[in-house]
Amino acid sequence: MVTFVKFANIGSTKWCILIGGLLCLIVSVVSGLSYYLSKYSNTVDPVDIKTKSYFVDTPGCRLLALNVMNDQLRKYVKKVKEFDCGTPLLRISKNGSQLWVNVDKKGLFKMYNVTKLEDIECFYHIFDRRTDFRNIFLDTVVFKLSYQKPVELKKHADLLRVECSHENQLIYKDGFHVLNHRKPSDSVKGEDEKMPKTAEFIKQNLSHVEFFGYNKVDENTFPNLIPLLTGLKTKQLSKFCNISREMDDCPIIWKQFKEAGYKTAYGEDLQHLTLFQYNRAGFKKQPTDFYFRTFALEMSKFSWRRGGNTYACYGKRTPLELLLDYVRNLAPFMQYNDFFSLFWTISLSHDYLNAPQLLDKPILNLLKFFDSTKILNKTAIFLMSDHGLRLGDYRLTHQGEMEDMEPLLIALLPKWFEAKYPEATKNMRINANRLTTHFDVYATMLDLIDLEYISDVSIQNRIIELTKRSHMPRSISLFLPIPDRRTCFLADIPDTYCGCFDRISIPINESIVQFAAKFIVDEINQILEPHLTKCAQLKLHLIRHASFMSNAIRFKEYHPFRLQDVFVQLQTVPGYGIFEATVRSTAGRSTLSDDITRINRYENQSYCVDDANLKKFCRCKI
């Protein structure tokens, strides 16, 4: 399950921050990990998800506890087989200086239909980054294979693309990366059955805090991770950099770590869906000291798709395997340097409800590796996702809707951390059952740049400052107590994505629902109006369900509006798109409280337009 955690290395002398995440981690996986963390606990957790009704029950928010074992979930859960990408013909030595044959004679014939090893002709390209979308070949070396003698690689052959042929037919293509002698770049200053083994290891070996009130702040990946990495909303980010061009000037948090003397690393396992390159221009210069994209971009040329938007294999290995190998190779740098890294996986979690089962073993092995190399003893890890599963049949259920809003966040801390920083840790545990967001994780990471920020004296002074403020800040470090009066409004969470609301169902034939549904469709058609030469005008097909957003009544003392919010899920034709939105009526005037969200796939219906926001509405004319 790869929602990688944020890994922050926090050491007594050397400190690292590692961020990993399951991009689009499906919440059944999140819930499953929560279930097992509870199951294997020998102590009383802040919330016992098997008995309590609410994860969060404060004056500002009431967040329903999801029952991960209910029949509704079981209906969708299936066992998934591991992907077999085949056996690689070659392997690289531990020191990165040699290539060895990885199969015996029997395997050579079985896997590659070759009887004589000497009949295979191979070469490797040494390559490097030119741009975020193109690599450059620096050298090409032809070589032959032998069972007894390895292939000696050229010095400084850091990134390799290997191809082998037999009788003029390409039979093997692969890639290897070597970090041992690679210098860092100086271009930047600055019972659900998903993850029981990982959960058991965390419970038995690591101090951890799970945040049950963690709520997303926007619809999809980019507008959720930008707050996490910059403390800003996407629209605010535009004041600092032009996000339609290269994003080198954007104030991404790794710049602050770099300026504080940290080494930095960043990588995602699927290159066509990456945060800064999907429908965006990426970076002109390499943004971090260690940058996985260059290698993965080359490996993506050897990929085959398993369906949906993701790939099963890059050559003879899965994208996740390549990413985790890269992380392991960074271990020497993590051991001897202050280190910040962000690693994100999407290959097993995007589009698929059940595939994240396959994350359990790889993540467990990675944590064990960090434990054996003592990295865990100086590392703070944030295991997290950006949101839940946004599309598909499961998302149409009530539980699927709630899980979409509630991504995973678990902080893993060294065992000594709580004794050295008791006030900060105590507040973290309090916040396990408070409303929290990506903005708060950003503020927390800033605190980890210098651990003096979280000393007991510093924490006590900052609490006094927080209570004196006339306006509650949007970003509050998780080392400070989140005020219990915090609402989605105060946390800058749009109503449509707020899990705190108690929704009261309304019959779909009620006039207020009919009005709201028509209002939403009219708003969509206004967006489409300039594009009607390409896109069809939409009509209301049916209303799936509607509800009042009752939180504004229960917590009106914390909410500045007197209003009536109606949430509607509807379907339009042509195209049968399913949309959700909240219509707000106050003083005789109606508006959309937030953006309109689409929760089923548009596939290739929107082939005629390129704008990402327009695609979810446009049904191209045939």
TrEMBL record:
<dbReference type="InterPro" id="IPR004245">
    <property type="entry name" value="DUF229"/>
</dbReference>
<dbReference type="InterPro" id="IPR017850">
    <property type="entry name" value="Alkaline_phosphatase_core_sf"/>
</dbReference>
<dbReference type="GO" id="GO:0005615">
    <property type="term" value="C:extracellular space"/>
</dbReference>
<protein>
    <recommendedName>
        <fullName>DUF229 domain-containing protein</fullName>
    </recommendedName>
</protein>
<dbReference type="Pfam" id="PF02995">
    <property type="entry name" value="DUF229"/>
</dbReference>
